[in-house]
Design brief:
ten-stranded mixed β-sheet; 544 residues; alpha+beta; Immunoglobulin-like; TIM Barrel; six-stranded antiparallel β-sheet; 8 helices
């Protein structure tokens, strides 16, 4: 068990570990690309299956043409699906941090890790004794003091010491061998999150003589530094065999735990996708998803589950967050809790291609200071309001609100007949986004874009300062601003045009102009930039 002991110079210790964090992140900042081309999710909804049981030929063909992959499926069934789609992804399933009695899905179902682990321990007993593989509490290294996950299922396991060379060797060898033997594309490592909730004893990282406590930044740095090294070593070995490393990273919404260990993976599953959280939790989770997954061009498995998602508004909320945060490798699943193919109405929503890749920070998606977040697509715009109050934004192009209903079990290889996607009346100007809701609008006039340029496009609009008094500089950022015309239209809260700016300066990063609002009243204004057949908007706040 490795740990950092407290002393009288705790603040110096914190400073040292913050410095260490920067060093570690820099050391592991190199880019490890996915080992092969993945299904492109830049347009539409690409669907992942949590699990499949026995499928008939019709169900297998439907799965092959409508789903991109699965992490719990018998090989006989994945072979059947791959008859129709040889690029269907299949992942090995195992617990991330320790040997489990029944936490390993291989050829035809669940298997125990214990026999394989015991065999490895016996073969290497001259190098490592059994207890050295495990994480212990109270500084006592015997079997009675092992840390254990007790999640109320058959997946309980003893927590391994992630720094242990023997455990790492065993884990890499075993999982890579299974991937090779059963034609897996990689491994889904369940319970890859920070090991606190569900682990016993509670506060196992506390020592009688000092140590860590929940909420301590040193604890977060200690764990994440170790886990980053652990996953990076596994990922390096996996990529040598063209395999993917995808842990279940949960929701990343614990404020004091900065989950930078995700840098060592190919992405992962965000479980319980934006359910049961307040606006603060939403901001933490969404910000870290952008920072460590979608904004970093990694794989996202967005996992919502019934019965938690049992109403249409909740389904709207979840799919809107998917469109808000997704990248080209983002896969969505509304898990029904059964192992047969289900198809839901929201899977058929087509907004075309996103106009720009996801940013690395959540602030870049906020509409001014409204508290509403937005993402533009070729055929639509998605708005998400995580706050507990309604908010107004300016819709600068005619759109229709999208609603949907229906979905369920796939019968005879066909989608459920009750699936409906409908569009409301044309709307534009100032609109209200209800509290804690996700709203999808479909453009009346879809944009024409070159999808080949999407990956490198970095166009956005910002005003600095904002709030401002009385001047602000409005910049439309663009990779190639030369020979482009840009017009800024500024409106007040009632939608009235208060100023139009056509004379703008070309700068290295885009096109820029300064607005002087000394003759305007305090309040919220909306600015729209028309440039190169595209439109960008943001909100301005004048505070005198």
């Amino acid at each position: 068990m490795t740990y950092v002991k407290r002393n009288a110079k705790h603040l110096l210790c914190v400073a040292f570990y913050c410095f260490l964090l920067l060093v570690v992140c820099a050391a592991y900042s190199f880019d490890l690309k996915a080992p092969y081309e993945l299904p492109d999710a830049s347009s539409g909804v690409k669907v992942w299956a949590d699990q499949f049981a026995t499928l008939n030929a019709q169900a297998a063909q439907f799965a092959a043409t409508h789903f991109v992959g699965c992490q719990k499926i018998e090989k006989s069934q994945s072979d059947l699906i791959r008859v129709f789609n040889n690029k269907f992804l299949v992942l090995h399933y195992i617990q991330a941090y320790g040997p489990s009695v029944m936490g390993n899905w291989t050829l035809n179902g669940w298997e125990s890790d214990i026999n394989a682990f015991n065999g490895f321990v016996e073969a290497h007993k001259a190098t490592w004794n059994r207890e050295s593989y495990f994480q212990h509490f109270d500084g006592i290294t015997d079997s009675a003091h092992r840390v254990v996950l007790k999640d109320g299922t058959v997946f309980n396991f003893y927590l391994a010491d992630l720094n242990h060379a023997g455990w790492r060797q065993y884990f890499k060898e075993q999982t890579i061998a299974r991937c090779s033997a059963y034609a897996f594309n990689g491994t889904f490592f369940d319970n890859g999150r920070f090991p606190e909730s569900g682990y016993y004893p509670s506060g196992w990282f506390n020592y009688p003589s000092g140590g860590f406590s929940a909420g301590d930044p040193i604890l977060s740095i200690w764990w994440n530094t170790m886990a980053l090294d652990y996953w990076t070593e596994i990922r390096t070995a996996y990529h040598a065999e063209s395999l993917l490393v995808l842990p279940n990273i949960d929701r990343m919404m614990t404020g004091w735990v900065d989950d930078f260990y995700v840098n060592g993976t190919d992405g992962g599953m965000v479980e319980n996708w934006f359910t049961g959280m307040n606006s603060t939790d939403w901001g933490l989770s969404a910000g870290r998803i952008l920072k460590y997954i979608t904004g970093a061009d990694k794989i996202l498995m967005a996992h919502a589950a019934t019965p938690a998602i049992n109403t249409i508004p909740k389904r709207h909320w979840c799919i809107a967050n998917y469109f808000l945060l997704k990248n080209r490798y983002s896969y969505y699943v509304l898990c029904p809790g059964t192992a047969q193919p289900y198809w839901w109405a929201e899977y058929d929503i087509d907004l075309g291609y996103f106009l720009t890749p996801p940013p690395a920070t959540l602030a870049d998606l906020m509409v001014g200071r409204t508290g509403v977040y937005a993402r533009e697509y070729q055929k639509g715009i998605v708005f998400v309001n995580p706050s507990i109050t309604n908010a107004s934004v300016f819709l600068d192009t005619p759109c229709r609100p999208l609603s949907f209903s229906g979905g369920g079990l796939v019968m005879n290889g066909q989608k459920p007949v009750d699936i409906q996607i409908t569009l409301g009346a044309i709307d534009s100007g100032i609109i209200t986004i209800p509290a804690q809701s996700g709203i999808i609008y479909v453009r009346e006039h879809p944009l024409s874009i070159d999808k080949k340029k999407i990956k490198n496009k970095k166009a956005m609009i910002k005003a600095i300062p904002n709030p401002f008094n009385p001047t602000t500089t409005i910049t439309v950022y663009d990779d190639a601003p030369q020979n482009k015309q840009c017009v800024l239209t500024i409106r007040d809260i009632r939608g009235n045009i208060v100023e139009t700016i056509k004379d703008m300066d070309i700068i290295a990063s885009g096109i820029s102009a300064t607005w002087d609002a000394k003759d305007r009243a305090n309040g919220i204004y909306f600015v729209k930039a028309d440039m190169d057949s595209r439109q960008y908007t943001t909100t301005l706040v004048l505070m005198k």
